[in-house]
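Quick one - first record:
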Amino acid sequence: MRTTRGLKGKKAFVRSAVAMAAVGVLTLTAACTTGTSDDDATDANKFTTRDVTDGTTTFVLVENPDGGQTLSYAKDGPMELLEVEEDGNTLAFKDMNANGELDPYEDWRLEAGDRAADLADDLTAEQISGLMLFSSHEGSPSDGLTDTQKTYLSESNLRAVLNAGSSDVEDNVTWVNEMQAYVETLTTSDAPYIPANFSSDPRNTATAA
């Protein structure tokens, strides 16, 4: 676990369209099912962690003190936490570009628009282009994460996934979590972590009488 020495000072001048695209992906978090508790701290002023699992993927759920943001990341993945001391509290932040520093876009205390602009400033044209694409219709969540999906996530930088599958809760939760965990493994200092964004048409099981 690393400790940050401060925010990386910089200004971001980006087009509004790119910033808004980044806002969309930053607001997403991976869905997690409950699991066994494994608190790392008894101090009420320090963040705590516990494991949660869907039976396939295990995540670490991070709860910050004093009403701070709740975070999650894959337990077996490369994501690390940064610690910041503020007003007597120890806060946790995800190191989403693996540089050991707390960058503005990683700071959940800041406004979403400011975080998005900072992230967009660090992305290449190829990475931004990937955020503007949608996948083909993924019709079988029960298959889990496929090689084809890994390819467009890693090589095309795509993050918007079209879910055209069934409404089965277990299949969808395990597939979504597996994909989010995989995307975390793609994180480097040159490729900041951006979670997958799942889109789907409204659906229900209601039938006409």
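second record:
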Amino acid sequence: SQNPKVSKATMLQKTAEYCKKLKAERTHMQKESTILKQEIDSLNSAISSVQSQLPETGAPVTRQRKDQMEEMFDEYVRVRTTENSKFWIFSVLMSTLYDSYCNSVSTSSMEELCRTTMAWLDQSGSLVTLRPKVLNALRKLSTSTPILTEPQKMRQHALQAVAKKAKGQQGNNNNMMSK
């Protein structure tokens, strides 16, 4: 009759030990949870800090992407100039606008594209901004091409200019591939 009492006492003792073990594990897990929460807060703060240093327009355009965009623009100008040499004159006038567009407009999302395009248009599309840019481009055209002195040679000049630019890009692409 005493054996059942001992066994009940042993069972109670083992239960008490198990409860202590569970309580210790719970305390350990609570400490670990607190440490992990602090680490999460710290990482969130670091992420916020880094994000606050990023440009508003998204990631800056990489040099490779900018070069690729310039190549596509130049190819478009070349094709259109072979169709109509007057397009080359238009491209000279538009190149400064194209450059400012590429530097100002973000394509990180459709909303960013719309917002930054409208901001660029407000800043660069006004007559006050366009007049000096067009004047400088016309001055450059009139002093570096035969447009005023020998207008009949303008077609040949335009075709040579786009061919020279295309040839220069092919040389650059070959140099990049050999590196």
